[in-house]
Structure formats: structure tokens, C-alpha cells
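Blinded run. Sample ID left blank on purpose so nobody reads anything into the name before looking at the predicted structure. Input follows.
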Amino acid sequence: MNWFGRKKDKTNQPSAISSTSAGGGNAGGGGGGGGRANTANTVVSLRENIATQEKREQHLEKKIEQLTADAKAKMAKKDKKGALFALKRKKLYEAEIDKIANIKMTLETQVMNLESAAQNAETFKAMNAGKNAMTNIRTDTNIERVDDLMDEIKEEMEMADEISNALAQPVDPLLTDEDDLLAELEQLEADDVEEQLLQPAKKTEMEFPEVGSNELPAIPNATKEEEAELKQLEAELAGL
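Blinded prediction complete.
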């Protein structure tokens, strides 16, 4: 049956099935295989980079713990300047850990997007094989397919621009506020004072002054009346 009103030369014209098989074989066996290998290698490279970032993150966390201990030790020795310097270094390491967390998130997002894109590429190849079979039957190009293809190209270009703009965003340097550091330093000092106050107090015996004798000192050149009053006062003191 002639679907389009024209005779075809059956002797020299290849069949639709054989053309589809040949086209599918070239697409899947040649560039397709290399594309899959490149995608797999890229995913492996990204995952290795994520592992490296995690190791660096663990190393910086140990540094932060050490600097916190150094700051407390210097405060105990009243070395406020040394403790402040240790806290500044601690803040730098904490900022670096925040950057590493953002980098890891970006890398993991890339891995997921790349794996999804590879799966979509395989799906697209399967769909493209079916499209090639229809193309060998039809002689006219479907304009809707061209429009869809152009829309997909534009979408991919816009996505690439968004990723480039995101990677090109500037990163503000770490601005350390010394007021915050001094407040943290005072908190460490207050914690040490509170720890000392919570320790049990040592029992000490109270020493009282010795009680003197009840005898009053003699008054030189005293009259008899004064001596009598003095004796009466001594008697009252002796009765207490």
C-alpha cells in the first residue's frame, strides 16, 4: 500500500525496521556508550569530592574542640588575650565548616541531578528510537517536534545559565565581631566561677579572743570613795 501517493523503489530502498536498527545501534553503541561512561566517571568524581569534604569537616571539628579547650585553659591562667585569640581561630574554623556544608549540598545536588539526567537520557534514547521508526515512514518533518526540541534546548540553556550564576555569586569574608567573642569569653569565666562556688566549702574552726579577768586596773591617786565604787564595780563584774 502506498500511503503518501508515491511509488517507492523496493530494490534500493532500505526497510524502516533495518534503518531503525542501524540508527539505534549507532546511537547506543557509539556516542551513547561513551556518554554513559563519562556520566558514571563524573558521578564517581563528585562522590569522591564529597568524601574529601567530609574528612576535612571532621578535621576542623577536632580543631574547634581543641581551641575551645585552649581558651578555657588560658582563661584559667588569666591570659585573656590568648583566650581571645583562640576564640577568633575557632570562629574561622566554624565559618569554614559552614562553607564545606554548602559545598557538600551543591555536590550532592549535582550527583542527584546528573543521575536523573542520565536516566532521562536513556529514556529519551528509547523514545528517540521509536521516533526514528516513524521518521523513516513519514517523509515530512513534524513541526511540532521541532518546536518541542527548541523548547527543550532553551530550557537546558536557561538551566545552565542559572547554575553558572549561582556558582558565580560572591562569598562574603568572615567578619568577626569582638563584642560577641568577649561575651563568650565572659560566659566561660562565669562558668568557671560557678563551678568553683558549687564545690563544697572547707570547715574552719572559729577562734575567739581570750576573755580577760574581771579585775579593773587600779586608778592612781584615787580617793576612798572612788576605790569603793571600783570595788563595787568589780563585784558586779564577778557576778556576771
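Unblinding after everyone has recorded impressions. The CA atoms of residues 222 and 228 lie 10 Å apart.
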